[in-house]
Specification:
Blueprint lengths: L3 H9 L6 E6 L1 H15 L5 H4 E5 L4 H9 L8 E6 L10 H13 L3 H12 L8 H4 L2 H7 L9 H14 L8 H10 L5 E7 L7 H9 E6 L14 H8 L5 E2 L1 H11 L3 H14 L5 E2 L1 H7 L6 H12 L2 H14 L4 H24 L10 H7 L1 H10 L7 H11 L4 H18 L5 H12 L2
Parallel strand pairs: 1-4, 1-5, 2-3, 3-4, 6-7
Length: 437
C-alpha cells in the first residue's frame, strides 16, 4: 500500500505512475487525488492537461481522455471521481446523493449521466425521471427522491432530453485494455472510490500498474474524541489563518461523528461564523452545529420507549436544522421509531405472564433474565445486559400490547405515506407525538 509523501515526492521528480487508486473516506480520497494531480501537472499546464471527470461518463470516454496525446509536451492527469459506479452492486441511496451533489455543483452532464446509469436496469429513460412516483422509484430503482428533489429532478430530466443524453455503455474492459496497452508518456489515471471489492479489476490494475492508496482518518483509541482530524482542519482553516480550540474540536466530533466531509463543511461554516476571530471556540460550535451522530437515532428509540415526545421532537428538529432535505431525515427517524415499537411489542408479549406487581431489578435478574438469555441464545440473537433487559421490561408495562400493535400499524402507514409524497416534517412530528403520547 503506497503512502502519500512517497507518491508526492515521485510526482515532483517527474516519476509519476500510470495508475493510482484512492480508496476510503470520500473527502480524504478526493482531496488526496487532487493534491497528487496538482503535483503531477505543473500549474501553467493544468487548464488543458488536468481533466476532472465523473465515472458516470463511462469507461470509453475516460479511456478516450487518457489515450489522447496532450496538446503540449507536459504531464497529463485524468482524475475520475465516483469510481464506485464500476462496482457490480451499487448503493442506490448513495448514488442519488451523489447525483444531487453533482447537480447542485453545476455539473449537469455528470449528474444526468450518473442518474441515467442508475435507472437503466429498470428500463427507464430521461423522460421517466420526473414522471415516476416515489413508490415506483423505490420499487424499480431501490431508492426514491424526496419532494424537495422534484424541482431539480425535473430540470435534470429536461436537460437530459434536450442534450439527448443516455447512460454510457457498461464497458469497463475498454478502460482496462487502454491502460494495459500502455498510456502515452507522462499520462496518469487517478481513480477515486469509497469502496471497491478487493478482487475488482480496477484494484488489480492499480496494484499491477501503479499505486493503491487507502485514505481514512486514524483513531488513537476507541472514543470519537481520538479521531484525528488535523488534516481536515489544516485543509479548511490553514489558508484562512484560523485555529480551532481543543475543546471545540472535541465538541465538533461529538456532534458530527466521523463523517469527514460533513466536518469539513461545518468547519467552513464556523470560519465564516467567527468572522475576524482567529480561534473557533466551543460556544461557536454549540451555536451553529447540530448534533447528528448515530447515537442520536438510538436516542430517538429511547425517547419512544420512555414516552418523551419533547426529547423525540428535539432530536428530529436538530437533524432538520442541519439538512436541507427533510426526506433524508424522515426515513432514518421512522426506522428508529419502528424499531423501538417492535421491541416494545416483543417485550410486552414476552413479559405478559408475569405478576401484576412490578419486579425489582435483583428479582428480575435472578428469576426472569436466565430464561430470556436462554431464549435469545437459542435463536442466535444478541443477549442484552441484564439492566438493559430490565429497562425493556419496565417500559413494556407502561402501555398495553394493543397500543404497540396500533403504533406498529401507524409506522407502516407513515412509511407508505412518506414514499408517496407526504410532507416529511409534519408527518414525523405527528407520528412522534402519537407514539410518545
Amino acid at each position: 500500500m503506497a503512502e502519500m509523501p512517497q507518491l508526492l515526492e515521485e510526482a515532483a521528480a517527474g516519476k509519476g505512475r500510470p495508475v493510482y487508486l484512492f480508496e476510503g473516506d470520500e473527502y480524504l480520497a478526493r482531496t488526496s487525488a487532487r493534491e497528487l494531480a496538482d503535483a503531477l501537472v505543473p500549474e501553467k499546464d493544468r487548464a488543458l492537461n488536468l481533466i476532472l471527470v465523473d465515472a458516470s461518463a463511462g469507461a470509453r470516454e475516460i479511456a478516450s481522455h487518457l489515450v489522447t496525446v496532450a496538446m503540449f509536451a507536459a504531464p497529463k492527469a485524468v482524475v475520475v471521481e465516483g469510481a464506485d459506479v464500476f462496482a457490480e452492486e451499487i448503493d442506490a441511496e448513495r448514488e442519488l446523493t451523489r447525483v444531487r451533489e453533482l447537480w447542485q455543483g453545476k455539473r449537469q452532464r455528470d449528474a444526468a449521466r450518473r442518474l441515467l446509469k442508475l435507472v437503466r436496469p429498470a428500463g427507464w429513460a430521461a423522460a421517466d425521471l420526473a414522471a415516476a412516483s416515489a413508490a415506483k422509484w423505490r420499487k424499480d430503482v431501490g431508492a426514491a427522491p424526496s419532494n424537495e428533489d422534484k424541482p431539480w429532478l425535473q430540470e435534470l430530466s429536461a436537460f437530459a432530453l434536450d442534450q439527448k443524453l443516455v447512460a454510457p455503455p457498461e464497458d469497463l474492459d475498454a478502460l482496462i485494455k487502454a491502460v494495459e496497452r500502455g498510456l502515452p508518456p507522462k499520462s496518469h489515471l487517478l481513480l477515486v472510490a469509497e469502496s471497491l471489492p478487493p478482487k475488482h479489476a480496477l484494484v488489480r490494475l492499480a496494484a499491477e500498474k501503479g499505486a493503491h492508496v487507502k485514505r481514512r482518518a486514524e483513531r488513537r483509541g476507541r472514543g470519537i474524541d481520538t479521531l484525528d482530524i488535523s488534516e481536515i482542519v489544516a485543509q479548511e482553516l490553514g489558508s484562512l489563518r484560523k485555529k480551532i480550540a481543543r475543546d471545540a474540536e472535541i465538541e465538533l466530533k461529538n456532534r458530527l461523528g466521523d463523517d469527514l466531509r460533513l466536518i469539513a463543511t461545518e468547519l467552513q461554516k464556523l470560519a465564516l461564523f467567527v468572522a475576524e476571530k482567529p480561534t473557533i471556540q466551543r460556544e461557536d460550535v454549540e451555536a451553529i452545529v447540530a448534533p447528528v451522530r448515530e447515537e442520536e437515532f438510538f436516542a430517538v428509540a429511547e425517547a419512544v420507549g420512555e414516552g418523551d415526545p419533547g426529547k423525540a421532537l428535539q432530536l428530529l428538529h436538530d437533524e432538520l436544522r442541519r439538512k436541507a432535505n427533510p426526506g433524508s431525515v424522515a426515513l432514518p427517524f421512522l426506522g428508529s421509531v419502528a424499531s423501538a415499537v417492535r421491541k416494545a411489542l416483543a417485550d410486552s408479549a414476552r413479559y405478559a405472564g408475569l405478576p401484576p406487581r412490578e419486579l425489582g431489578y435483583n428479582e428480575f435478574q435472578s428469576r426472569i433474565f436466565p430464561d430470556l438469555e436462554a431464549e435469545l441464545s437459542g435463536r442466535g440473537q444478541k443477549v442484552p445486559h441484564p439492566f438493559v433487559a430490565y429497562l425493556g421490561y419496565k417500559r413494556s408495562r407502561r402501555r398495553p400490547r394493543a397500543f404497540w400493535r396500533r403504533m406498529l400499524v401507524r409506522c407502516a402507514e407513515a412509511d407508505f405515506d412518506l414514499k408517496n409524497g407526504a410532507e416529511p416534517r409534519l408527518l414525523m412530528e405527528r407520528l412522534l407525538v402519537e407514539v410518545c403520547a
